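Pasting as-is:
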Amino acid sequence: MSSIVRVTVGTGPAHAAPISCVAFRADGWRLASGSHDRSVIVWDTSDPARLIMVTEFGHHAAVLSVAFNPAAADLLATGSADGTAAVWRVVDDRPPSLMKVLAGHPGPVTSVAWMPDGQHMICQIAESRAAVWNAFGETYLGELEDCVRLAVSPHGLVATVGADGLVAVRDLWRDPGRITYLPSAPVEDCAWSPDGTTLALAGADGSLELLNPGLLPLRSVRLGDAPLRGITWSTDGSALIAGTYDPALVSLDPAGRPRWRRTDARLWPRSLAAAGSTVAAATFGGRPHLLDLATGAGLDAAPAALEPAAPFRGGALTATGRILTAGTQGDRHPLWEHETRVTAVAALASRVVVSAAHRTVRVMLVSDSPDLAVERGITLHAPEPVKAVAVLGTPDAPVVVAASHDFRLFSWTLDWTGVPPGPRLIGEFGYGIAALTRLDDHRLTATDHHGELVILALGADGALSA
């Protein structure tokens, strides 16, 4: 995008952009984190309350996945938005060395997973398929079609989630066929138990499904209304940890009974990892967030979570959980309730009110009267979970702008006659959008986590551009 200005938005983070992925070494003493700032950092976690950076290296684009080799503790695989996967040797007493590069993927490598032999690797590609490699021979062996999520069991069974919603399990070496299962809701993530006897599915409806290797259901647990984003198991299989879009982490025993729940404003639980007594999660900050596995207590200082709010008619729009209200501190008026926690709010000209919850964006035209009666309303559906919203234009023709957690910016132009086509993709920020700030009725700024600010303006046709 053009018209970029660098500003200061913070100091001192280890990564300069949100952390997209985390993975523990088998012994739990080292944690790798990858970021959209293109870097990988390996941390010393011998004292979880005091993370120490051991080494840093990176790709030419955002790092989207990291995975330690199960057969060689000093080998780390990484996947990047530049379409490459790499294998690095990471040893404490010398600089990291790049051993192998697996290139030529037709899209970003969003996940890397080792097979148990430590020789073969599967690279999930953003185009809904996965490539199978002999990593050290740099030999491409073929691909798995329709794969948007994957997990490899300790016995070498490969579980995949397709764009069609089907969950499949394959034994790549012994049987070319697959068995399939249609879950009750779209699956955001999947993970095998350490003994390979249970596959956990994180559902977009807040449900957690547990299946055996034959994909026969064992049990299903509803963790709330918030969609689940990531999932992992403790090293000994005694606990499941799920991440939600609230954002929160939830711990359960293998029977699905909740142990603890912790909400944290920093969390971006697209990636979780556990080792020993510690849980690690990806974050929007510069460092991974570590928690105690037994209690969920944070092992580092956490900022207080702030509820979404925006100025409105001399007071404010404020979201508390799923409910949006308007007014002054002593006189609040409930407006409406979403099915999940509200993540962002915005207003225009004291008439148009916008709120976002997960992928749902509600836009309402409210009356001038004190009762704030809704005169017109439209529900929009974003292709990705929404982190921030803004609204430009006029009450008769508002333009709604939404920034996703996965770093893309969208807009819709409304005329109140029906749901508009779209959304229109405005652009993608490689370092993640930290905030949208409305300057006036026709301009706003989008600021990323790396300190870059873009001014976007409405054109005569209602299109938004830099």
